[in-house]
């Protein structure tokens, strides 16, 4: 859907920002441009909506060279979220979100209705509609920026470091919401970040840019992590690389140990798996979701905080095992009796992936 063909950009002062970029961004993908500061990520992204013109090469959107599309009509089909959201300070939240809708010719009333719907989609209460940007938290401001970009339902969304100015907890929430939105809306998203963790979390395709504005690798997250194309990409993903790779390893393939039925007191005796310990399960909430507590030999009850499902990743299961008071992670799946896994069961899966030998998980094997 978006295609860079031999694109280079040299700014008037001679700075070579992007060098011979060939990149195809598939429709419906979440593509993250990642790399250190100054390697041409923003410049590349801005060439998609003609905020920057290539010095050579072409950028095609749906097969059309953007150079031949009027910037205003091009941008009506491309939402854009900036790092500081770029809201109009003297307009209310609702008016900010409705800005593109009004440009597109929607009436004030229709614009407002669509703006409120977009706000709801990104988790903003309607009560915030009449506030001004200065009356919002950083996380709310970013949500308004996303709502504004989505309000006119453009097929393409560009995001430039959208979550870098908020604290880590707010950022986690925003990132999770982006994944939900992408799953629901199926937009083509292109995001710029210098944070490799954010790229690996969000991107189903990752374009790693290297100094000099050169594309070093374009692949899915797992491939970037386990088979970096060169030394530069390898150094970018070096930290916790083996541990991160566990996020792509499915738990499927091991058989959790099924637990016996509960005794007359409602407790499941963990037997030799954890001598003296038992488990109590209850059905909680409207969905009847199962929740549990471990009961220690001295009678102390500890809420099970990290149960996993067979569909989860090895990383999540390993984390649950390590965080558990007795080395057992509870495995719960609908319609299946409760079961557990421990380190001994997970160990055969902890073999390093090819290409992750250096700094991989082999050194950490029990
Ligand atoms: N308008 C401009 N005029 C001259 N040079 C520019 C201009 N905009 C960007 N540059 C330069 O082009 C290079 C690439 O910048 P760009 O913003 O695309 O990189 P980036 O990877 O997005 O970096 P960052 O993460 O710091 O934003 C940098 O050297 C930058 O200084």
UniProtKB/TrEMBL annotation:
InterPro entries: AAA+_ATPase, ABC_transporter-like_ATP-bd, ABC_transporter-like_CS, P-loop_NTPase
Molecular function GO terms recorded: ABC-type quaternary ammonium compound transporting activity; ATP binding; ATP hydrolysis activity
Family membership: Belongs to the ABC transporter superfamily.
Its EC number(s): 7.6.2.9
Positions in coiled-coil regions: none
ABC transporter domain span: 2-236
Protein name: ABC-type quaternary amine transporter
Gene3D superfamilies cross-referenced by the UniProt entry: P-loop containing nucleotide triphosphate hydrolases (3.40.50.300)
Signal peptide location: none
Keywords carried by this UniProt record: ATP-binding, Nucleotide-binding, Transport
SMART domains xrefs: AAA (SM00382)
The organism's place on the tree of life at top rank: Bacteria
PANTHER family, per database record: OSMOPROTECTANT IMPORT ATP-BINDING PROTEIN OSMV (PTHR43117:SF4)
């Amino acid at each position: 859907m978006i295609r860079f063909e031999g694109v280079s950009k040299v700014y008037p002062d001679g700075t070579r920002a992007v060098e011979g970029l060939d990149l195809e961004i598939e429709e419906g993908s979440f593509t993250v441009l990642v790399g250190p500061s100054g390697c041409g990520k923003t410049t590349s992204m801005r060439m998609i909506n003609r905020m920057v013109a290539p010095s050579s090469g072409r950028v095609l959107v749906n097969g059309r060279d953007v150079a031949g599309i009027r910037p205003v009509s091009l941008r009506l089909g491309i939402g854009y979220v900036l790092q500081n959201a770029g809201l109009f300070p003297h307009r209310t939240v609702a008016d900010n979100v409705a800005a593109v809708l009004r440009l597109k010719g929607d009436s004030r009333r229709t614009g407002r209705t669509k703006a409120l719907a977009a706000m709801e989609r990104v988790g903003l209460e309607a009560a915030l509609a009449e506030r001004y940007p200065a009356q919002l938290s950083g996380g709310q401001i970013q949500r308004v920026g996303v709502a504004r970009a989505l309000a006119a339902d453009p097929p393409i969304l560009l995001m430039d470091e959208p979550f870098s100015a908020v604290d880590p907890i707010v950022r986690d929430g925003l990132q999770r919401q982006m994944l939900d939105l992408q799953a629901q809306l199926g937009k083509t998203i292109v995001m710029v970040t210098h944070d490799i963790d954010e790229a690996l979390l969000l991107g189903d395709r990752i374009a790693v840019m290297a100094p000099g504005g050169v594309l070093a690798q374009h692949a899915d997250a797992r491939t970037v992590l386990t088979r970096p194309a060169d030394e530069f990409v390898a150094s970018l993903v070096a930290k916790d690389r083996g541990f991160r790779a566990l996020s792509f390893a499915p738990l499927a393939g091991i058989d959790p140990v099924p637990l016996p039925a509960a005794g007359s007191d409602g407790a499941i005796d963990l037997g030799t798996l954890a001598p003296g310990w038992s488990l109590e399960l209850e059905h909680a909430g409207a969905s009847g979701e199962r929740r549990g507590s471990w009961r220690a030999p001295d009678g102390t009850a500890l809420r099970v905080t990290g149960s996993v499902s067979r569909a989860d990743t090895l990383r999540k299961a390993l984390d649950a095992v390590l965080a558990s008071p007795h080395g057992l992670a509870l495995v719960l799946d609908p319609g299946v009796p409760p079961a557990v896994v421990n380190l001994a069961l997970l160990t055969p899966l902890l073999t390093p992936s090819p290409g992750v030998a250096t700094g991989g998980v082999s050194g950490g094997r029990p």
